[in-house]
Amino acid sequence: MAGQRSASCSGATAAGQGLGTRCAPQSGRRRCGAVLFEVILALALLVAAAAVIGGGLTAGIHSVERLRLTAHAMDLAVTVMSELQMAQAAVRPGEPQPFGPPFEDWSWEVILRPMEGAASAEGSVTLIEVVIRHKAPPFVYRLTYPLPSSTGGAMPQSAEGTGTTP
User: Fold this and answer.
1) Extents of the domains making up the chain
2) Is the full-model pTM beyond 0.85?
């Protein structure tokens, strides 16, 4: 009896000499097959759970990056608009301007266009749009101020800003 294997699927010998990998004939095969199926099923569930968790982490990282780019672009757009208000930056419509270090990946552009249907008794209204672009990853942010022509260069405080990924 010392050298015989038990009928269980664990493969332990009757003498307790360690674990084997074979099952006893007939009665243990079904049991060993069921255990193998359970192990494979558990591994498949583990892989599926890891894929779902990995996908969630990737989506979260991309959202944080997009939020960081939006906040940075918003700050740069407000800075450019403020410089335009104080006449510290030259308005060259349609001509992209690079930012200096440490913002080499960023550029800005000013677009001037008349506001449709906004003519008042004082004159027409011009929309000043500051477009901020990031090279890699590609990202565009737009900040628009309406400017009545009678204000003499002072811009109102209301603004609209939008960030997009092309």
Assistant:
1) 52-164
2) no
